[in-house]
Inverse folding.
């Protein structure tokens, strides 16, 4: 058969990284990215982009660890290259702190990040309300630079990127052989996934160049993540809240919470307030499916539902989705060979 045509629906972090992995693993493919939203207007552009995994209750831990490991290794290599500043990727050290000692003192990802260890009593003096903490070095992706860098890589690989609102995956069946669904929260409507729900997140970007270390409450409720040009302060986790409008009371609450952890932030200037809807599920939907109407078939690969953990696993899940695309291509080539017989 001719070069298979693959459409990736969605141009957030997951869509772009999946399209890139498809071009790397299936170089004979013609890949097109379709989306009605592009950086800097995606959920990914709101995210802090720090590599600290979120746990998916219905996904086996060994799978989550593999996704994280793949992603960390990939980004670590970029951070160690001349591309690092353009890609917005850098190492950042800091502390994850707990008011009470957690049951699990050694998370599954502790041997993937760098230099993971319990905090010393001397370090904990910085946080008098907290009894336990973990110190480590991880990676951070600044957005939009990382998204723009991914777009540049895709274009250099010959990937076409078009603005288009896809209302139904089936509408693509005449133009493409395989469709990859990376629509994020859009999958709620696009494929009617009732297991997908938004978790609203509001963050502040502040000017505080003196803050060099990240600080994160163990439950992820409050965090301070220094980036290249600004520091991200968060956050909120509001399940089933679809509002994209910043709330001034929430802005004040986030600022006060972060200042209680890092009092020097009182002198920081708030540059902008951003809101995103994390596409959340009990597990990421990583699945092959064949849509069929009137004897016509359309292979689909789903890769969405990353919630608040997208940056931590994006490369690992993109590789798995690309592998599923490879399986779809093999099945298409097999059926086209049989048709010739």
């Amino acid at each position: 058969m001719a070069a298979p045509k693959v459409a990736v629906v969605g141009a957030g972090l997951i869509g772009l990284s999946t399209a890139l992995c498809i071009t790397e693993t299936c170089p004979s493919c013609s890949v097109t990215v379709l989306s009605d939203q592009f950086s800097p207007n995606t959920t990914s552009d709101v995210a802090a982009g720090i590599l600290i995994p979120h746990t998916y209750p219905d996904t086996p831990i060994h799978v989550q660890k593999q996704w994280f490991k793949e992603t960390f290794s990939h980004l670590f290599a970029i951070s160690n290259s001349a591309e690092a500043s353009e890609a917005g990727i850098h190492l950042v050290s800091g502390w994850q702190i707990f008011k009470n000692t957690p049951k699990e003192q050694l998370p599954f990802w502790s041997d993937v990040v760098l230099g993971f260890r319990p905090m010393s009593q001397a370090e904990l003096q910085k946080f008098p309300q907290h009894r336990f903490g973990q110190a480590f070095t991880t990676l951070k992706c600044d957005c939009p630079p990382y998204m723009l860098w991914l777009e540049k890589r895709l274009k250099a690989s010959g990937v076409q990127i078009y603005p288009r609102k896809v209302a139904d995956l089936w509408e693509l069946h005449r133009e493409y052989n395989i469709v990859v669904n990376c629509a994020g929260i859009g999958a709620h409507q696009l494929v009617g996934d009732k297991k997908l729900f938004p978790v609203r997140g509001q963050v502040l970007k502040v000017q505080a160049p003196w803050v060099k270390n990240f600080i994160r409450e163990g439950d992820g409720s409050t965090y301070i993540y220094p980036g290249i040009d600004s520091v991200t302060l968060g956050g909120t986790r509001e399940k089933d809240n679809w509002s994209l409008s910043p709330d001034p009371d929430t802005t004040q609450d986030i600022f006060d919470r972060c200042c209680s952890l890092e009092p020097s932030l009182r002198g920081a200037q708030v540059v902008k307030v951003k809101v995103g809807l994390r596409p959340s599920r009990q597990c990421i939907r990583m699945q092959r499916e064949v849509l069929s109407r009137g004897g016509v078939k359309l292979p689909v690969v789903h890769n969405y539902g990353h919630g608040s953990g997208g940056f931590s696993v994006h490369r690992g899940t993109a590789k798995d989705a690309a592998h599923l695309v490879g399986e779809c291509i093999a099945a298409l080539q097999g059926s086209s060979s049989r048709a010739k017989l």
About this structure: Residues 310-340 form the longest helix (31 residues). The mean pLDDT is 95. The chain is about 30% helix and 30% strand. The domain at 5-335 is CATH 3.40.50.720 (Rossmann fold).
